[in-house]
Amino acid sequence: MKKAVLAVIAITATMFGGPAIAQTQDNGSNWLVRARAVHIDPADKSSPVAGSGAADRIGVESRTIPEIDIAYFFTPHVAAELVLTYPQKHEVYLDGQSIGSFRHLPPTLLAQYHFTPGSTASPYVGLGVNWTTFSKNRLLNGQGSLEHDSIGLAAQAGIDFRLDRNWSLNVDVKKLQLRSDVLIGGVKASKVKVDPVLFGVGVGYRF
């Protein structure tokens, strides 16, 4: 996450270090909707299985998913963003071998600060909370499962590049705190820290 945020900051610094960014007039709307393609890169950290052996034996599949977010601007600088997608299926691995899959629904709510609203390039940061609910746990032929819910912090950094009065391009990086116990026969066998980094690219429309 640090490398991703530093990369966003470096891009922003480079842009501000050059010629002054052209200013554009805001269209007056408080609503911004974005559609993104997002790549999920899990941290794949886990405690030893059944309390013994090596750590980090359990991993979760990386994949690219569609994402929709809806932002409401309370002021030109301050906004709230709700990030949504549909339930996503992921494979789970033990020592590199698939042991089943699960689905998760991870809505995230963030408070954002936009540094240069109305500019051609407008960087922002966000902080909020992620709530992930797991379903259709099918691990170890039905003998294993994950906890039902995970609640954790979410951090965000990104830039909107305005194309015209309504449309913009968006680059966005988020880090989610997403953790779950792995249960076998109803007994905790390990704790998984999925804690994914989400790299997103998309378009936005200001109503």
UniProtKB/TrEMBL annotation:
Query: One of this protein's Pfam families, by short name?
Result: OmpW
The stretch of residues making up the signal peptide is 1-22
Q: Spell out the Gene3D superfamilies in the cross-references.
A: 2.40.160.20
Query: Can you cite a GO biological process for this protein?
Result: transmembrane transport
Cellular component annotations (GO), alphabetically ordered:
cell outer membrane; host outer membrane
Q: Which InterPro entries match?
A: Enterovir_OMP, OMP/PagP_B-barrel, OMPW
- List locations, semicolon-separated: Cell outer membrane
What keywords are assigned to this protein? Signal
The name on file for this protein is: OmpW family protein
